[in-house]
Amino acid sequence: AAMSRKRLQQLVDSLGRSAKHFNKNEVECLIKVFDALVAKSSNRFAAVGFDRNSFRDTLHSAFGMTDDMIMDRVFRTFDRDNDSCISVVEWVEGLSVFLRGTLEEKIKYCFEVYDLNGDGYISKEEMFQMLKNSLLKQPSEEDPDEGIKDLVDIALKKMDYDHDGKLSFMDFEKAVRDENLLLEAFGPCLPDIK
Amino acid sequence: GGNPTATVIALCSMRDFNLAQETCQLAIRDIGCLEVLINLLDTEEIKCQIGSLKILKEISQNTLIRHAIADLGGLQIMVKILDSPDKDLKCLAAETIANVARFKQARRTVRQHGGIKRLVGLLEGISVGSTSLTPCQTKDTEIARCGALALWSCSKSVKNKEAIRKAGGIPLLARWLKCSHANILTPVVGTLQECASEPSYRLAIRTEGMIENLVKNLSSEHEELQMHCASAIFKCAEDKETRDLVRQHGGLQPLSVLLGNTENKKLLAAVTGAIWKCAISRENVSRFREYKVVEALVELLTDQPEEVLVNIVGALGECCQEPINRTIIRKCGGIPPLVKLLTGTDQALLVNVTKALGACATEPENMMIIDRLDGVRLLWSLLKNPNPDVQASAAWAICPCIQNAKDAGEMVRSFVGGLELIVNLLKSKNKEVLASVCAAITNIAKDEENLAVITDHGVVPLLSKLANTNNDKLRRHLAEAISHCCMWGSNRVAFGETKAVAPLVRYLKSNDPSVHRATAQALYQLSEDPSNCITMHENGVVKV
């Protein structure tokens, strides 16, 4: 119902070029998936694209993601033009990095996800926010936040190369290149291999 | 306790400690962290497993930690991880296993949990000869390298060598041997040379064309790789076909060249060992002479550690198969250091030294030097050495000394208690000792005065007691000894009385012509006594 044959073809061509990691067949499939998933949602924006909720549902059902805050950030990152709606172009290009990005592309992507206020730095407060629920709360603990604060300090000590108390993109990139495991240091924002 | 995200951050930070330092390693163990690390291995969280293994890999360099990891069941988990599809995880697991499996029980555990099969499976990537690889091939090579490292550690156990073979490891190792990257070649060759103590491996190394690659890598820039190749050749050159293959593939020259590297003692030991065994074949000795190996070896005779000396002397001994080398050794001043080595205590070295000196002593000019340096007395005193191999080797060496010395009889008499000593060795249970002593007695008995002395020491009944043997080597030398001992007094009669004659007749049934010859001589001598003739006739000597 959505597009004419010709428009579809044009879209596939242009996306095939911009989303470097998919070939044309794969792009077509992704567009079909997009259409199918969007049609399922009952939202009136359906014709244009994913809204936040539908996107989060997809992240959950397709990729097993559960962290609300992270999923929200992923949505924001996919949504380049910030119109609270993920178009088919944003969908395909986003997935290109999400599923098959090179290390460089993934580093940029993760940094964007973690930089909650988009100011080019991951601050201690932002780290605290993201790691808030990552430790099991001991019933006897007086200040449950103490553990989180320690964890944030450890992370900062490891990754803050220019010692300015926050992580710039360069800090983050250097840390990840040194130790790949730190790519998703503040929460799982990439699909699991399983 | 935390979720994977927190765990990963903590694990990554842990690596910033100096994990190579023992205090740090033991601290990790003492605060119960090892259990945590191993529990993390048991989860399905790949990032946690990777983070944990990165730490375990480092700290398992420590012996105490290795044992602790094994006690906590870490090895079983690591073996399971080898099944994971994640390549990084497989590599880390294999590398950690390589570190932990440095003691016997660990190696057994790996085998009992199916580890050997899985490690061999890691070798199944496609090896490429060229130097530039796609990222995928690089990853596969890395996986194979880690697998080979683990197999290398595990292969120190005999049962594991067998398990590797049964799992089809040999053709895979052969394939990787053709590769040109030193970082995978080293563990592959390391494993092969470790396993080359088994005949099945030596056969496979020969038939799968691996000698060619081993020879090629003797010229590598990496000394460790050179050492393992030389070591493998050392072990495999027990077999004649291999010795020929080494020569045919041009291996003798790089070995000779490597003698120049005297700094690296382990390498030198392996190279001299390889040269020693290759020199067992005469054609190789000729080739070595072209490369001036004898001269180089003599130069190394001083100031080397024992494990190198054993091989150097062994090689010189084999090179003496060619008479001209015996002269070269003398001209290079090799005799004095060899004689000096007779005073050592290392038994393997003593065996080789006596053999080499014995070979040299066949040249009269060499014999003069040996005698002047008191070498024969030193050899004689080695007859007192508790090790039968040393005794036999010394006795064999004494024979050419007596044959080629001036005033041999006088010389022998000058060794206080020497004749009694050697006659008493006839009481030994070791066949090689007996044969060598008989040969020596044959030579001693050529001097009449000495013959009288050994008769007094009871040589006749002792020789007769040995007559009932099926061992051709012993038979031959015994018969020669008897025939020479007949030349004194009533020894002929005594041999008859001590029942030596009848068994001797049976020797004629042997297939060995040298036994026949010696026996015929002995019987001829014995037959001058009539009662012996009767005995011989009774035993059907004419028919035989």
Explain what you see:
The complex is a heterodimer of chains A (194) and B (544). Chain A contains 9 helices and 2 strands. Chain A has 194 residues and is mainly alpha-helical. Chain A has 2 domains: 5-100, EF-hand (Recoverin, domain 1, Orthogonal Bundle), CATH 1.10.238.10; 103-182, EF-hand (Recoverin, domain 1, Orthogonal Bundle), CATH 1.10.238.10. In chain A, strands 1-2 form a two-stranded antiparallel sheet. The longest helix of chain A has 17 residues, at 24-40. Chain A starts with a helix and ends in a 16-residue tail after the last helix. The model of chain A has no long low-confidence stretch (mean pLDDT 83). Among the domains of chain B are: 1-126 and 135-167, Alpha Horseshoe (Leucine-rich Repeat Variant); 409-543, Leucine-rich Repeat Variant (Alpha Horseshoe). Helices cover 72% and strands 0% of the residues of chain B. Chain B has helices spanning 4-14, 22-30, 33-41, 46-59, 63-71, 74-81, 87-100, 104-112, 115-122, 135-154, 158-166, 169-177, 182-195, 199-207, 210-216, 223-236, 240-248, 252-258, 265-278, 282-290, 293-299, 306-319, 323-331, 335-341, 347-360, 364-372, 375-381, 388-404, 408-413, 418-424, 431-444, 448-456, 459-465, 472-485, 491-497, 501-507, 513-526, 530-538. In chain B, helix 4 (46-59) runs parallel beside helix 7 (87-100), helix 13 (182-195) runs parallel beside helix 16 and helix 24 (335-341) runs antiparallel to helix 25. Chain B is elongated and about 105 Å long. The mean pLDDT of chain B is 90. Classes of the chains: A mainly alpha (194), B mainly alpha (544). Chain B: Pfam families: Arm, HEAT_2. Chain B: This is ARMC4 protein. Chain B: ARM repeats lie at residues 73-115, 417-459. Chain B: InterPro entries: ARM-like, ARM-type_fold, Armadillo.
Describe the biggest sheet of chain A?
Answer: 2 strands, antiparallel
Q: Give the CATH superfamily of the domain at 1-126 and 135-167 in chain B.
A: Leucine-rich Repeat Variant
The helicity of chain B comes to over 70%
Quickly name the level 1 CATH class of the domain at 1-126 and 135-167 in chain B.
Mainly Alpha
CATH topology-level name of the largest domain in chain A: Recoverin, domain 1
Mean pLDDT of chain A: 83
